[in-house]
TrEMBL record, chain A:
<dbReference type="GO" id="GO:0005795">
    <property type="term" value="C:Golgi stack"/>
</dbReference>
<dbReference type="InterPro" id="IPR041209">
    <property type="entry name" value="P115_Arm_rpt"/>
</dbReference>
<keyword id="KW-0472">Membrane</keyword>
<dbReference type="Pfam" id="PF18770">
    <property type="entry name" value="Arm_vescicular"/>
</dbReference>
<dbReference type="GO" id="GO:0061025">
    <property type="term" value="P:membrane fusion"/>
</dbReference>
<keyword id="KW-0677">Repeat</keyword>
<dbReference type="InterPro" id="IPR006955">
    <property type="entry name" value="Uso1_p115_C"/>
</dbReference>
<dbReference type="GO" id="GO:0006888">
    <property type="term" value="P:endoplasmic reticulum to Golgi vesicle-mediated transport"/>
</dbReference>
<keyword id="KW-0175">Coiled coil</keyword>
TrEMBL record, chain B:
<dbReference type="InterPro" id="IPR005225">
    <property type="entry name" value="Small_GTP-bd"/>
</dbReference>
<dbReference type="GO" id="GO:0005525">
    <property type="term" value="F:GTP binding"/>
</dbReference>
<dbReference type="Pfam" id="PF00071">
    <property type="entry name" value="Ras"/>
</dbReference>
<keyword id="KW-0449">Lipoprotein</keyword>
<dbReference type="GO" id="GO:0015031">
    <property type="term" value="P:protein transport"/>
</dbReference>
<dbReference type="InterPro" id="IPR001806">
    <property type="entry name" value="Small_GTPase"/>
</dbReference>
<keyword id="KW-0931">ER-Golgi transport</keyword>
<keyword id="KW-0547">Nucleotide-binding</keyword>
<dbReference type="GO" id="GO:0003924">
    <property type="term" value="F:GTPase activity"/>
</dbReference>
Length: 941, 223
């Protein structure tokens, strides 16, 4: 399908991305109307030439090292593989551009992409898109990156390959770009940036986009309330590169879309362009560009033409034209020889602009108003002079000027008179009028064919709707006006042309004379009075007879001449019975027609022969129609029936309108290159065809005028269908409006919802904000307070220091005294601590001593108790033997109990001592703690 | 030749660009037609996109040309018509006194205009169809109040009877003219919708020298 899609199949990651875009775009691509292509093609062919002429050549950075490695490795020969590797390489660059955080790295990656953009358009265009859009949207202030990106995108969209019919890839990439939401806005923003790189590349990008997807881009720009205005503004940039780029962009923008065209006019583009044209040198290509835009804006655009006239720009065109024709004052002396090619091109463009204003394609109101303005601004006068004087203009300029004059005077009596009264006074015997000059050029074989056609058109335009002018031409042929035989008259020149052996000239002459007879029946009779002054022969030859003789003498040769003569006769015989009788007076005339009508082997192509047969049938039937007496008519009818046959003559008549020549002549007022039938004759033929045919089919209803009625019915059908179409179009428009409205409503609603949400959030954030503010203010307040405090503390400190210093200063050798004092204090404290320790040591020893003593005592107590228990036992035993040991027993317990109570007392005293000791110890410990001496746990005991 | 050419009479001191905006069917095109052609067309095609008309008026003894751009009121044309705001010096904001909704939409029109136009644009509020008193839905006072609130000039007109139509256009022009006198408008910036007229009608270019030998007639001409 596409050459580059083959590579996408082999590629690993690329294939997915590019393939998907492939499928979507190609459809749209094939749906494009053909005409767009041609336009764009034209555009493309125009552009490279001029870019290279004006803008400095774009220099691309050298291809990165890796690339050249690739290339060396693969020898550069294998295209596919190269593409693949290119894609991989591009992918790496894209990845870098997307992920790099350091701006330099990213810039280098983008630069790398730009370097290979030309080579791998598809890869760079598709894979890099996200990175590019990201820069456009988020990195607007980074002019360097913006320039690189915009340039890359522009490169991707352009091709150097002029040979290909269209640039499919460019089209599709452009479509992908435009479809990105906000893309056009971003580019428009870039255009607004003042930086030269950004602005220039942005404009170039828009130009390229327009070349590929004009309609969509125009629409997208129109979506922006000031989109067009922004683009027009760039034209005011006083950096010439930018301005010229902008003009080229406007060239593309101004195509085809009448709304854009109107808006451009509204934004004063005419004025801007005219200002530029007036400052550029005459052979500047920029002028052509400007005029190209103007031509686009004015062609068939009634409103823009009106604005152009109302803003009095036509007068400025006149001034510019004058400058072009005669040069600036300062360059006058140099300007003698040939003009520069570009200057000629510029003048032709200028003439085309003027012509657009008065073109017969416009509404008659518009054309007429413009014709008036051309007269008032003296442009017409100027152009008439161009026709008549030697100014070094080329034949192209002369031809174009003649056509402009033709359309400027066409149907406007004032202008026709102005033209006719222009006189060429070249110092020879009698001044020649412009009409004579025209006819001389028309009859001069050595003049270029195009020029002669233009002259012919101009003469016809002079005659158009100009009864007085027609009469004046005929008058010059009438006998009484032959007083000044030496001077060339228009009539004489026309007759000379008719009699010419050159077919083209004869045809010109016939048709010119024929135009003199249109719509002015009395002139047909006048023309009958014309005699040719042939000196030798006695009976003066009438013009009609002369024309018939010419026709007869051509036999079946010279088709073009015969076509001219037959058209002239056919017109002459209409509504002029005298002419008919004169014509029929000689039998050979009718005979010629009837024989040649059935002749199958005349000169000329088959189509031309068909035309001629049709013309002969037309003349014959015109005779029949314009015969006065009934008898004559019926005898003529019989004659036709006998010699030709009704069927044949009718089919010949019908056949005329089916010929190629007929169809082509019916299309345009201005004669085409192939001169065979005339526009006005075709009109006349159409209006008479039905009536003429009816003569041979009196029962029109039954027998026929079938053709006519069929056409009529078709016409009605077409009319009905036209109505339907119009109705449907209207409906369609209404529907689409409604749909749009509904869509808009839906969108609006969504928007409203969104807005509501946002509003809520906004309120919240506002609340936060106020809170924040309160807090902030509090913070500030407290900071202030803190600072005050700090300051105060500082002040106190200062005071304290001052005081200390003062105090120290009071003492002799203050510091040492203070130190000594402190040292002393320390010593004292240490001493105290030492005492404390000693006391503690003593205490603990005493305690130890007491503890051991206590243990001893306990021991003793236990022994004593044991002894007691023994004693008690002995007592009991003694008690058991009371007689023997009575006294002893009584005595002994008494001594024991005394001893016991003594011990008990002793023990209690010891316990008390112990408690006392403990208290003391606690006190010491506290003291130690107070003195910050470490007190270990074991010391607790 | 010495008489001033016909064209000279068309010259003007200033050209003001106006736009007419407002809902569809309020009579914008009819107002324009009444002003430029002094006629009323009861049935008017929907305006497609933007159309324009022009007329010369005299203010303070100066010829001023009004170039009036009549926009389509339909929503679908909003994006097109918005493009015209920037280049206009004056705007007629029109509503229909017999249709309350057209009055209610004024705020959105005004917002649009203020957003896209230059800040000095003179806006005239027009309540049209004042001849249809019986079907009135919006009181004159309401229009006045709206105008006062938003700093607009107010007028009720009838494109049908031509009542106040002249005044509406001319008063706007006067206001613009006053702003020019005060120096508010930069008349050299055409984006403001104001253009200085040509001082003189264009002079005819000089005739070429007499050395001409005839481009066509000479036979030996340039061709």
């Amino acid at each position: 399908m596409f050459a580059y899609s083959t590579s996408s199949i082999t590629g690993s990651t690329l294939s997915v991305r590019s393939f998907s875009s492939d499928t979507t775009i190609s459809n749209a691509f094939f749906n494009l109307p053909q005409s767009n292509f041609r336009q764009r093609l034209q555009a493309k062919k125009r552009s490279p030439k001029r870019v290279s002429k004006r803008a400095p050549l774009r220099t691309h950075p050298p291809i990165p090292r890796q690339m050249s490695l690739f290339r060396n490795f693969f020898g550069g020969g294998q295209q596919d593989e190269d593409e693949d590797n290119g894609a991989e390489y591009v992918e790496t660059l894209v990845e870098r551009a997307e992920t790099c955080t350091a701006p330099e790295d990213r810039r280098d990656a983008l630069r790398g992409l730009k370097g290979v953009a030309k080579k791998y358009r598809l890869a760079v265009g598709t894979m890099g898109m996200n990175a590019f859009i990201d820069v456009l949207e988020t990195d607007r202030m980074n002019t360097e990156a913006m320039t690189i990106v915009l340039d890359t995108m522009a490169i991707v969209l352009s091709t150097d390959d002029d040979s290909s019919e269209s640039d499919e890839l460019g089209e599709r990439l452009a479509e992908v770009m435009i479809k990105r939401k906000g893309f056009i806005s971003s580019v428009l923003c870039a255009v607004e940036q003042f930086d030269i790189g950004v602005r220039r590349t942005a404009i170039q990008l828009i130009s390229n986009l327009l070349r590929h997807r004009g309609t969509e881009v125009q629409k997208a720009v129109m979506e922006h309330p000031q989109g067009i205005a922004k683009l027009v503004d760039v034209i005011h940039d006083n950096r010439e590169i930018i301005r010229n780029e902008a003009i080229l962009m406007i060239c593309e923008l101004s195509r085809a879309n009448s709304q854009v065209q109107q808006l451009l006019a509204y934004d004063n583009i005419f004025l801007d362009l005219l200002n530029i044209i007036e400052t550029e040198p005459l052979d500047s290509i920029v002028i052509e560009d400007c005029m190209f835009v103007m031509l686009n804006l004015l062609r068939k655009h009634a409103m823009n033409q009106q604005i152009f006239r109302e803003d009095q720009f036509v007068a400025r065109l006149g001034k510019i034209l004058h400058t072009f024709l005669y040069g600036n004052e300062e360059t006058e002396d140099i300007e003698v020889t040939e003009w520069a090619k570009q200057r000629t091109a510029n003048v032709i463009f200028l003439l085309q602009i003027i012509r657009t204003l008065v073109s017969p394609d416009n509404t008659s109101e518009n054309t007429h108003a413009a014709q008036k303005v051309l007269n008032q601004t003296k442009i017409l006068e100027e152009l008439c002079r161009v026709l008549l004087s030697e100014i070094g203009a080329s034949v192209e300029i002369l031809t174009e000027s003649i056509i402009v004059v033709a359309e400027a005077i066409r149907g406007n009596y004032t202008n026709q008179e102005l033209f006719a009264n222009t006189v060429l006074d070249n110092g020879e015997d009698v001044p020649r009028t412009s009409l004579v000059v025209l006819l001389i050029s028309m009859t001069a074989e050595k003049q270029p064919y195009k020029l002669r056609c233009a002259v012919f058109y101009c003469f016809l335009s002079y005659l158009f709707d100009n009864e007085f002018g027609k009469a004046r031409v005929i008058e010059t042929l009438l006998p009484q006006s032959h007083n000044s035989s030496s001077s060339l008259t228009t009539g004489a020149l026309i007759l000379q042309a008719i009699s010419s052996a050159e077919s083209v000239q004869a045809w010109f002459g016939c048709v010119t004379l024929m135009h003199c007879l249109y719509d002015v029946d009395h002139l047909s009779e006048q023309l009958l009075r014309v005699n040719l002054t042939v000196v030798t022969e006695d009976p003066p030859l009438t013009l009609l007879n002369h024309v018939c003789q010419l026709l007869v003498s051509t036999g079946n040769r010279r088709p073009q001449t015969r076509a001219g003569l037959l058209m002239l006769l056919g017109t002459w015989l209409q509504n002029c019975p005298a002419a008919v009788s004169d014509f029929m007076a000689k039998d050979e005339h009718i005979q010629y027609l009837t024989t040649n009508l059935v002749d199958e082997c005349g000169e000329g192509s088959e189509s031309e022969q068909q035309v001629l047969r049709g013309l002969m049938a037309f003349v014959l039937l015109s005779c029949l129609k314009n015969l006065q007496s009934k008898e004559a008519r019926s005898s003529m009818e019989i004659l036709i029936q006998r010699r030709v046959g009704k069927e044949l003559i009718l089919s010949a008549l019908e056949g005329l309108s089916r010929t190629e020549q007929f169809v082509r002549a019916a299309q345009k007022q201005q004669p085409t290159n192939e001169l065979f039938l005339d526009f006005h004759f075709v009109k006349l033929f159409k209006s008479l065809e039905g009536t003429l045919a009816k003569q041979l089919k009196p029962n029109g209803e039954f027998n026929g005028t079938s053709n006519d009625s069929i056409i009529q019915s078709y016409k009605e059908l077409i009319k009905r269908q036209d109505g339907d179409i119009a109705q449907l179009k209207q409906d369609n428009k209404r529907m689409s409006l409604e749909i749009e409205k509904l869509n808009a409503e839906v969108q609006n609603k969504q928007m409203e919802r969104e807005v509501e949400n946002l509003r809520v959030r906004l309120e919240e954030s506002e609340a936060f904000k106020t809170q924040n503010e309160v807090l902030n203010s509090q913070l500030v307040e407290s900071q202030r307070l803190t600072q005050q405090w700090y300051a105060e503390a500082e002040r106190y400190k200062q005071w304290a220091q001052q005081w200390q210093a003062y105090q120290l200063a009071q003492l002799p050798n203050g510091v040492e005294t203070g130190l000594a004092q402190l040292q002393q204090q320390v010593n004292e404290l240490e001493q105290q601590l030492g005492f404390g320790y000693q006391a503690f040591e003593q205490q603990s020893q005493t305690m130890l001593h007491y503890t051991s003593e206590n243990a001893n005592l306990k021991d003793r107590l236990a022994k004593t108790e044991a002894a007691l228990a023994e004693a008690n036992y002995k007592i009991e035993q003694l008690n058991l033997k009371p007689i023997s040991n009575g006294i002893v027993v009584e005595h002994e317990p008494q001594a024991d109990s005394e001893e016991f109570s003594k011990l008990k007392q002793e023990q209690e005293e010891l316990l008390m001592l112990l408690a006392d000791q403990h208290n003391k110890m606690s006190a010491y410990r506290r003291l130690l703690r107070n003195l910050k001496q470490p007190v270990t746990d074991d010391e607790d005991e | 030749m010495s008489a001033p050419p016909l064209y000279g009479r068309m010259s003007y001191a200033y050209l003001f660009k106006y736009i007419i905006i407002g809902d569809t069917g309020v009579g914008k095109s009819c107002l324009l037609l009444q002003f430029t052609d002094k006629r009323f067309q009861p049935v008017h095609d929907l305006t497609i996109g933007v159309e324009f008309g022009a007329r010369m008026v005299t203010i303070d003894g100066k010829q001023i040309k009004l170039q009036i751009w009549d926009t389509a009121g339909q929503e679908s044309f909003r994006s097109i018509t918005r493009s015209y705001y920037r280049g206009a010096a004056g705007a007629l904001l029109v509503y229909d006194i017999t249709r309350r909704d057209t009055f209610n939409h004024l705020t959105s029109w005004l917002e649009d205009a203020r957003q896209h136009s230059n800040s000095n644009m003179v806006i005239m509020l027009i309540g049209n169809k004042s001849d249809l008193e019986a079907r009135r839905e919006v009181k004159r006072e309401e229009g006045e109040a709206f105008a006062r609130e938003h700093g607009l000039v107010f007028m009720e007109t009838s494109a049908k009877t031509a009542a106040n139509v002249e005044e509406a256009f001319i008063d706007t022009a006067k206001e613009i003219y006053r702003k020019i006198q005060e120096g508010v408008f930069d008349i050299n910036n055409e984006a403001n919708g104001i253009k200085l007229g040509p001082q003189h009608s264009p002079s005819s270019p000089n005739s070429p020298g007499g050395n001409a030998t005839g481009g066509l007639g000479g036979g030996s001409g340039c061709c």
